[in-house]
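Request: How about a record?
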Amino acid sequence: MWFTNLALIEQITFIVAIIGSAFLLFKIILLIIGISDITDIMFGLGRGVIVIIFQGFICLLAIGGWVTFATSRAGLSWWESLLIGLGASIVGMAIIMLLYRAATKLEADGTLKMQNGVGKTAEVYLFIPPKSEGNGKISLSLQGRIVEANAITKEADAIKTGETVKIIAYENNIYVVEKI
């Protein structure tokens, strides 16, 4: 049989590579059916240290196993093959870490931060009474959305619907505006 004719290091690394590849294939199948990570099933955890460690372990088994097996079959000594396989595993784990780091930078929490409206221009949606005597409403583009918000003015004149204003402050959940 082919397997029994292999050297001991080749047999061990072949088995390790098959196990790592099986985990990798299982993960791909889970991704296809909509489960983002095996750790969601096993540990109930999201993307964190456990995920990165688990991905690194799969990388160590699959990449390290196959590279060690291939270099051993190419005629290198067992320790040279093992060092090259370990190096390939470390490179693979570093690539996975960089990919996860890049992916986490793509995430956004989607929280609307009203303070980001200060300094922007807006259109008066509902009449704003003068001298902070009452609230009106403005409409502005904020973080890629059209937002309606309460607004006051400290000016002596009221601001009519349809006029353009500049937001000068955000106090007590209300924009303070002035006519442009």
In short: DSSP finds four helices and five strands in the chain. Residues 3-106 form one domain. The chain has a mean pLDDT of 86.
